[in-house]
Amino acid sequence: MTEVTFIGGGNMAGAIVSGLLASGMAPGRIEVVEIVPETRARIAATSGVRTCASIAEARLAGTVVLAVKPQSLPEVAQRLAPRLDRHLVVSIAAGVRLADLSRWLGGHARIVRAMPNTPSLVQAGIAGLYAPPALDADARSAAESILRAVGGVVWVDDEALLDAVTAVSGSGPAYVFYFIEALEAAAIAEGLAPQTARQLALQTFLGAAKLALESAEEPAVLRARVTSKGGTTERGIAALEAAAVKDAIARAVAAARARSVELGEQLGRLS
After folding, report:
1. Do residues 43 and 152 both lie within one domain?
2. Per residue, what are the HEC states of the chain?
């Protein structure tokens, strides 16, 4: 992989830097531009990578990862634009459309949009990626290798599908936490001690997800295998079906996708 410059040193950038280092990338090949002195000092002390306070001071590697808040991106992009040549720009700024980012970057077109999620903080994330059709394979591979440092990667062939990615995996951890929260509360209501309830809920979710990841069978098949006729699981699933839980999940994803579209439109009007 070529050298990488991160613009912004927040939690997600820090997670990716840690993932790259853990995968064997030398600290000297990574640079982080971060305006907050305390954050900059912490990054330098904990990772050993080069840090600087501004884009003007940056060496600017061949791959630049934009990891700033979406509201800050127009100003950051306009400062970055004069220094870009054949650089690959990878944006992990949620919701910012490629056309808007390209406009803020003075027409620069070598861009990949990425939507990672918060489990990336523990190298267990998943990221959706989109690139314009004209972007070469080497650039796509470089972008993918950066996001693979913190988890899995999927590509979509239509930028609009990143709104669905946002609704499923970007917002998805909150859905999972919501379910764990509910399962834990139900366990306590049945008389289990809070610590026991939490351990049961967390480990059950972790184990079921791991089983599904490592199995070649569909989740529906795995569910059916656990659901013995006339047993406790069948009765529990029937209660979920009666409450239309699947429909509620579908509505949640649709609502999150619609909000992602709205936010993208709002961000496009920032400048």
Report:
1. yes
2. CCCEEEECCCHHHHHHHHHHHHCCCCHHHEEEECCCHHHHHHHHHHHCCEEECCHHHCCCCCEEEECCCHHHHHHHHHHHHHHCCCCEEEECCCCCCHHHHHHHCCCCCCEEEEECCHHHHHCCEEEEEECCCCCCHHHHHHHHHHHHCCEEEEECCCCCHHHHHHHHHHCHHHHHHHHHHHHHHHHHHCCCCHHHHHHHHHHHHHHHHHHHHHCCCCHHHHHHHHCCCCCHHHHHHHHHHHCCHHHHHHHHHHHHHHHHHHHHHHHHCCC
Q: Report the chain (271 residues): mean pLDDT per 10 consecutive residues.
A: 90 95 95 96 95 96 96 94 96 94 96 97 96 96 97 97 96 97 98 98 97 96 96 97 97 96 91 72
Residue 208 falls inside a structural domain: yes
Asked whether residue 187 falls in the same domain as residue 155, the answer is no
In a domain, 266, yes or no: no
216 domain residue, yes or no: yes
Range of the domain at 179: 172-260
47 located within any domain: yes
pTM: 0.92
